[in-house]
User: Fold these one by one.
Assistant:
Number 1:
Amino acid sequence: MMSEKFFTEWFLPGIWITVQVTVYSAALALAVSFLVGTLRTSPLWIVRFASGTYFEIFRGTSALVMMFWMAYAVPSLLGIQFVPMAAGVLALGLTYGAYGSEIVRGALAAVAPAQREAGIALNFTKAQRLRKIELPQAWPEMIPPFNNLLIELLKGTALVSTIAVADMTFAGNLLRLAKGDSAPIYTLLLVIYFVFAFLLTRGMRLLERQANRRMGKTPPEKTGFLSGLRSKSATDAVTGTGGAK
């Protein structure tokens, strides 16, 4: 299906480019999420209005069209020329950062009002309350939705192939055009994206458990079919009902 030369010169570098785009876009999205999300909780209406406007614009536009706009419209409008990867990273990071800002805003809003009142009683400034009280409590609640957002961003990196970034989807399309065989190529791409998503999920689960431990919370019990069978077997062993009919 795939010659050794094509695999080493195109497909492996394409996987590495996908990893780079994911990491850079995720870093930008995380920064934007916290910046815009915290600004949307500001007591100043003008700050809330500006950050809310950003959120609505990027939530309501297509990431693919934004990528084309960054790559092809910005040079003619502003005279700024982005390399294709930079255009893709900016479009993905700013778009998914807008979605992430809602996660941050919602988690901060869920912090108990008594906690904020305690910070006010201690004469903390708004920034001190945010850093020492609100964000540490809100962070564990942000991780599960951020996990979903990160997976969506990973899958969204395939869009950079449309602006000639040689990621693994771009390499797969080249191989399909050369070989004329779509099924094995796209099946391989699906498997690779799934493996990446699975690894990201496991990493975020570990991060979530660590965050809960730091807050003194008991990690949630593992769920799933196998966990349920183990739990049932343990219960039967204790109660002696395993063989009861």
Number 2:
Amino acid sequence: MAPDYVERALLAARDLIESTVVRHRRELAQDSWAGTALEKVPLAEVVDTLVDGAERTVQVVMSGGEEQTDAVCAALARPARGARRNVAVRLLCRERAASANAIRALVRTDPRCEIRVGDGGPTEALLIDGQLVYVRGGGGGRQATLVEDPATVRALELMFTGAWGNAVALAEYPRLGGRLCRDSARRILECLRTGHTDEVAAREMQVSLRTYRRYVAEIMRELGANSRFQAGVRAVEMGLLPSRP
């Protein structure tokens, strides 16, 4: 028993030391960024530093940009040290990000990662421990801000939580075929729900009857539906169609 107790104590001490060192590195990095426009600091450096210093939660809004995807996936793929071994990771992906192979690989390789697909939340953001948020806006300038004001951080976290609650788990997210865009899929699902005949729906979609029916079959397969009615129900459940009053 004694050796086990000593080993656990040593492991706990090592984790504490590692966490302290990582936190210190993050603080030093933040100090070094203070005199520089944050958008000029390489994104990979910022993400790596902040993720490495996390102790409880890492929450990310993924826009689908290649630079952000590479930086976040690389930071999460590195072996976790200290407290980061038990960090809960949530990735909220836009539709474009959901198709990235690196994102889907995280689900298979990192049990800490929970990934959902949806809209809402900040444009592109990294939330750490409910204490600070790194936000990048759109546009050519890609303005970046590190937010530490508690009230603002809380507001951004609430925005993330709301968007997360309305998002769909990646495993349940339908990929509705490579040639069929999401808007077209919604239009077809709406036609199915409203009871349009295939002929009328194909005419409205401006495609041939044969093509329309192929699209319907493709959507049903992706949704795992055995009937058109079931496809409509599942589409509402997954947020592809709004529920009716």
Number 3:
Amino acid sequence: MKDLKDLKALKVLKAGTGAAVVLCLATALVHVLLVFLHVAPPNPLSQQYSRQVNAWVLPLFEQNWRLFAPDPESVNRQISARTMHTAPDGSVEVSDWFDLTGVDNSAVRHQVFPSHTAQNMLRRAWSSYLETHGGDDQPRSQRALMIQRYLTNIAADRISGHRGGTFESVQLRVITVPIAAPADPAAAGGPGSDTAASKPADTRYLPWWKVDSHGN
């Protein structure tokens, strides 16, 4: 009787393992197909299923060609966030600014194999926000709204994980500092030599955005 039970359990285990393998292979094939349609030139198939492709690929699996055609950063950006909490008595508490970029920099500095998250998540989220929003910070498409929520969730999760506290809204501040071109020793002291270095920083305040309630 015991041997029969063991045999049945083994069959169930094999069946479950086989089903899991098939599911993983099917998921991998679907992922490869959807990513291929995303990066391929426009065609009837990718246009017909563009909604499904974008829903799967963006923003976590977005692909681009910068590995082969690098686009070096021309500016340094410091992205900070602060939170707002409304107390039971109606008073509003606004926190100090929390340096999100500083957290990433500290996670990358002196690391032989820094994580992709620390290097690119926040930076790419902000780049996508710039591409999908105008100067008035109004989302005009579902993709723009998705990127806005994605950026908000990154800020809220990092503040909650590093600083804690209770809050219901988040605001971001982005300070952009142009990177001066390398100085030309032959032109040092010449007219316009300090122009690039003296470009002012640009500070952009985003609206307050509601988030899922965070806090203990």
Number 4:
Amino acid sequence: MTFRTLLGSAMVLGAFHSARAQQADTTLIRYSGQLAGQYSAGGVNRTLFSTTHSLTLLRGLHFGAPVTGSFLFGKQERLLKEREWLFNTTPYYWKGRFRFYGIGGYERSNLRGIDNRFQLGLGPGWAFYSDSLGREVAVSNLFIREATYFQGGTERLVSRSSTRLKVVYSYRVFSLNATTLYQPNLANAADYRATQLTSLALRFSPRFAITGTYTYTFESRVLEGKPTDNTNVTLGVAFSTK
């Protein structure tokens, strides 16, 4: 999973809490959406806009299937830098502290020179802590097969290990979502991606919240002239159904 995958899946663990409240033969559909942006002028002129939308189907007590789409657009000094698209689904099964995930994804990235990227994967996870409020500390490790087609005609087909540490915490009207991701190429450990995503939300109604998000991404192997890392800090609003 890349950062954009994580951004689309950041609210998935909240679905576990809703699933706990379900009966064994019920189906629940949840929607969440987020708009965020950044603007700066003076020494550096920058404009950044991002939006993420997630639809999650929960079936019974143990199954969920989130489908997510996200778009990010950014300019620096009036020049287009970021135009990022992501679509993915991350179905899961959970029982007690055990989780099992699958992933299927598609991505385009002007920032990293990616015309098309396809991902398929699966793997287990384990929650070291979870409670009835949806707070959780969990680790997962997925095996991912990835095909990337770069601008200019080059392409790569690699297998990756994707290790994720997820922390979800809430207290009254505040909630914290933090994800750390490390994804080495199984054939070459020096070829890897690393991601940190931290989001803090202040909920002012059952459905709406103000959000602040910090993201850092690093990819060791990119096209010549493209940056290996990227940092974004954004402020926005989020909406979700119960």
